[in-house]
Amino acid sequence: MRVLAAMSGGVDSAVAAARAVDAGHDVVGVHLALSETPDALRSGSRGCCSREDADDARRAADVLDIPFYVWDFAAPFSAGVVDDFVAAYAAGRTPNPCVRCNERIKFAALLDKALALGFDAVCTGHYARLSNGVLRRAVDDGKDQSYVLAVLTPFQLAHALFPIGDTPKAQVRAEAAERGLRVADKPDSHDICFIPSGDTRAFLAERLGARPGPIVDAVSGEVIGDHAGVHGFTVGQRKGIGVDRPAADGRPRYVLGIEPVSATVTVGPAEALDVREIDTETPVWGCGTAPDGPVSCVVQVRAHGGLAPATAWPTARDGLHVELGEPLRGVAPGQSAAFYRPDPGGDVVLGSAVISAAR
């Protein structure tokens, strides 16, 4: 096959490309330039997609003796990921930009261009497994990325390769060293790639400005503080709320809800975070079959953790109503819910949807 290897400049994508070469594919490497000012996207181990990363990807391609290109994807990344992220927070939602990047950049814009150029598949360094078009969790539970890939369609999965999903991260690094890849010991990037400072609140405040509103105690109904904008909060948050006195019982308060129209942030006790029902929208069934009745599954609401047995029902508005077998906390509108087959292994991805409400 003709394979386009997306090379971020990290160890995972470099080894994935190497394995694609070993498998006998005709491989071309490509690094995606996602910003008009790439030097601003990295600070130490935070962020990615900088000129440094492009250079690391190029050196890895040279070692593998494959053609290498840098493609400018700054415009679609800004519109489909960064602007979406800002708009979601402004609307009181909690987005996952990695999900959007996989959906709209790597497996929409990039795959579309690859297919138009005659490639058969896009290869990435994601930790996930594909078996006959079925997406599965990676062998390395600590690095598994099937949650952020659950948004992919059957067509996209049919044109994807995830060569390192069957290997623990430590072995991937060891293999990179054996191959002479200089990125073998390169630190993993952390946090959101386009916010290398790690200060999401400051990033959003710069773009959205001040939108003051009240902080309300859910137990007493009393206004106990004010804030500069709902974009500084997410459901489940405990620190940095900005309330200068404890609750009446002395226990900490958590963000329970965000109402963007009135700019109200509601806070209360930890137990009020328990969620037993979730409504979702825009489901995608990577398994290829949309259910016409209730589906038993395991739902995951965060990239790592946040799992519970559940039953999901299709709704009249092309969404899903999900009842949880046990409560989850920190479930917020805008997050993705990934659904897994409820067998003993629990590693087969059924699909995903965007959370619209939780209670």
Automatic annotation (TrEMBL):
Transmembrane stretches, start-end: none
Record-annotated tRNA-specific 2-thiouridylase MnmA-like central domain positions: 202-268
Site feature: Interaction with tRNA: 126, 335
Gene Ontology, cellular component aspect: cytoplasm
Catalytic activity: S-sulfanyl-L-cysteinyl-[protein] + uridine(34) in tRNA + AH2 + ATP = 2-thiouridine(34) in tRNA + L-cysteinyl-[protein] + A + AMP + diphosphate + H(+)
tRNA-specific 2-thiouridylase MnmA-like C-terminal domain mapped to chain residues: 276-355
Residues that, per the record, bind ATP: 6-13, 32, 125
Pfam families, A to Z: tRNA_Me_trans, tRNA_Me_trans_C, tRNA_Me_trans_M
Similarity comment: family membership: Belongs to the MnmA/TRMU family.
Name of the protein in question: tRNA-specific 2-thiouridylase MnmA
